[in-house]
Specification:
globular; two-stranded parallel ribbon
Length: 60
Amino acid sequence: MDFELELIGSLQRETGTFAHRTIQALQACGRPIHYHGWQKDEQVQAAYQRCSFTVYLSLL
């Protein structure tokens, strides 16, 4: 299966360090993961237009 995972959004204080290290480890293994962090609304809209599907996760 050919895909790229693009992650957009701020990391949370409680889980961000672990999440960032996990992303880096997966990237080092050659996984097609791109972490963009916080983005302006225009950039998020452009990402929505490029993508095949979205997932919105929230702990709230």
